[in-house]
């Protein structure tokens, strides 16, 4: 878990994750909807990502015309930064 994510989790505050030059603000894993884990387990990467990022940031991500690979990379990066694994 990154130091930023550790502080954020201790404070219960969202933390920044940078991907492809864009900084997304991500809630700590303890604040994620329980459906996130179900979506990740089922391989529904975009559904999980939408819940983690929220509608506005998810649309910002979609505007970059990402491939599934980029969505999976962002989910993995968020999980790594948050200390949840991949």
Structure description:
- This protein is mainly alpha-helical.
- The protein has one domain.
- It is 57% helix and 12% strand.
- Strands 1-2 form a two-stranded antiparallel ribbon.
- Helix 2 (35-41) crosses helix 3 and helix 3 (45-62) crosses helix 4 (68-82).
- The chain is globular, with a radius of gyration of 12 Å.
- The protein starts with a helix and ends with a helix.
**Strand arrangement in the largest pleated sheet:** 1-2
> Low-confidence parts lasting 5 or more residues at pLDDT below 50?
none
Major beta-sheet overview: 2 strands, antiparallel
- By DSSP, the count of extended strands is 2
Helix content: 55-70%
- Supply Rg: 12 Å
Label the structural class.
Answer: mainly alpha
- Tell me the series of helices and strands, N- to C-terminal: HEEHHH
- State the domain count: 1
Question: In DSSP terms, counting alpha (H) and pi (I) runs of 4 or more, how many helices?
Answer: 4
Shape: globular
Kindly report how far apart the N and C termini lie: 12 Å
